[in-house]
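Subject: Sanity check before I submit

Could someone independently write out the structure tokens for this chain? I want to compare against mine line by line before I put it in a report. The sequence has 85 residues.
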Amino acid sequence: MARSTRGAEPHAAWLLDLIGAQSDITLEEVRVLLRERGITVSVATVWSFYDRRGISFKKKRLRDRAGSARRGDGPRGLESATRAA
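---
Independent answer below. Compare away.
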């Protein structure tokens, strides 16, 4: 049975310990772990829980990833374009 949004409050110590142990955990990962504990909440609810305690989650910027999402192999040349029959 799904619990209400306020059902996360009794797990406050666990939620706070969780981000202490995994500082790079995402809000979605926290939400999934709560779901495994029988607590169904939205990502916004997880964010609100931590926000009330002054804890923020930083978005991972594209340039911090392995490669740029904007750069590919470049445009295809005329030679490699598929021709219509």
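---
OP: Matches mine. For the report I'm noting this point. The helical segments are 12-21, 27-36, 43-51.
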